[in-house]
Specification:
Histidine-containing Protein, Chain: A, alpha/beta, 12 strands, about 180 residues, 5 helices, 4-stranded mixed β-sheet
């Protein structure tokens, strides 16, 4: 599947991608949507960088003192180190809505503070609790802070849900989602 056309903000581009992945049977997609800012939406890179830092300060989920922002022609790149995946995701969400943003590259790394042997059990428990998933069809492997998910689910949304459950576990710095979609 290919998404094409133009939108007026990066947020609209990501919303279109998210909606397309919710369609049953979608396994892969090329997002070729072009962000064409209106004159009112144009903004100097320096202003975007300052707005990003301010957005981080207002979000209690983001350790703003550990994240650096660089902006070039409206493309925002995030750098730094956080303890949890949700902090990395929150930082990206905070900047994708800012006026003038054309693209976001999230290079924030997750450096957990938990024993690696606890990770697998926590993810397995989270999958068991998720009503949206058939946890019996998913296996979890953990090597240090890296997690590999394997198995089969019925939709892309279930695959994403399993990935979110893995990322939510404390100590996870990488998730390799190899879950297949069986129609």
């Amino acid at each position: 599947m290919t998404l094409s056309g133009s939108v007026e903000s990066y947020f609209e581009k990501m919303s279109a991608e998210s909606a397309a992945f919710r369609v049953s049977g979608v396994k892969a997609m090329a997002n070729e949507i072009n962000v064409k800012l209106t004159n009112a939406s144009e903004r100097p890179d320096e202003d975007i960088a300052k707005a990003a830092i301010n957005a981080f300060k207002w979000d209690t989920a983001i350790p703003y003192d550990r994240i650096k922002v660089s902006v070039e022609k409206g493309k925002v790149t995030l750098h730094g180190e956080v303890n949890w995946r949700f902090q990395k995701d929150a930082a990206e969400r905070s900047v994708c809505n800012l006026r003038g943003v054309r693209a976001v590259v999230n290079e924030i790394t997750v450096k957990p503070k938990i024993k690696p042997e606890d990770i697998r059990a926590k993810i397995a428990n989270a999958l068991q609790r998720s009503a949206a998933l058939d946890a019996k069809q998913i296996t979890v492997e953990a090597s240090g802070s890296k997690v590999i998910l394997r198995g089969k689910v019925r939709s892309w949304a279930e695959r994403v849900e399993a990935g979110k459950a893995a990322w939510a576990a404390p100590g996870v710095s990488e998730v390799q989602n190899e879950i297949e979609i069986s129609l």
